[in-house]
Amino acid sequence: MSWGHPRQMDTRCHTGGGSWWGVGSPPAQRGGGGVPEVEESVVDLSKNQQLIAELLAKRQRLHAYEIKKILQGVLGHGSVYQALSAMEGKGAVTSEWELPGKGSEGGGPPRKYFKLTTLGKDLLEIAHARDRATARAERRTKRSTR
Q1: Domain with 132 in it: what CATH number?
Q2: In this structure, are 99 and 129 located in the same domain?
Q3: Domain that holds residue 61
Q4: Measured between alpha carbons, how far is 117 from 8 in angstroms, rounded to an integer?
Q5: How far is it, in rounded angstroms, from Cα 121 to Cα 8?
Q6: 20 to 30 A from 114, CA-CA: which of 31, 37, 52, 62?
Q7: What is the DSSP letter of 42?
Q8: What integer pLDDT is reported at residue 100 of this predicted model?
């Protein structure tokens, strides 16, 4: 694969800070001017993270326990918190604590609410495009082996 100008790559993400990151890690280039080497997990969503991003895209804002309840049987308790932490670390979600009584009548413990960022929406879009491309390739492979 050629790592030309980042804007020419099929899968790319604008970070909002004026730089473009391609998905995956391009080979190191001498002399500068190329795409910086970036660990794939930084600009990629795992399947667990993709599930959570899809929920947040539909619901706008959820706390971790709500996410855990919705994905019960699909993701384990620890997997939800691990995915949210990783997503927050890469800037795909933001979080904010809400004190009891502020948003609900019943009070209760403070809750950490998560919201998908613009970068998170972009990463989700890239993940969907990659899934579609993978499905097309699998269909072609099945047809060619008949």
Answers
A1: 1.10.10.10
A2: yes
A3: 45-144
A4: 24
A5: 20
A6: 37
A7: G
A8: 78
Strand partners, 114: 62, 95
Average pLDDT by consecutive 10-residue portion of the chain (146 residues)?
36 40 39 46 83 96 94 91 96 93 69 96 95 92 80
Answer yes or no: do 82 and 126 share one domain: yes
Q: What pTM did the predictor assign? A: 0.65
Helix 77-89 with 47-59: angle, nearest 10 deg: 80
Q: Count structural domains, the chain.
A: 2
- CA separation for the pair 114, 62 (Å, rounded): 5
- Whether the CB-CB separation of 93 and 67 falls below 8 Å is answered with no
Q: Are residues 32 and 49 in the same domain?
A: no
* pLDDT for res 2: 36
**Confidence (pLDDT) at 67:** 95
Q: Does residue 67 sit in the same domain as residue 110?
A: yes
pLDDT at 118: 96
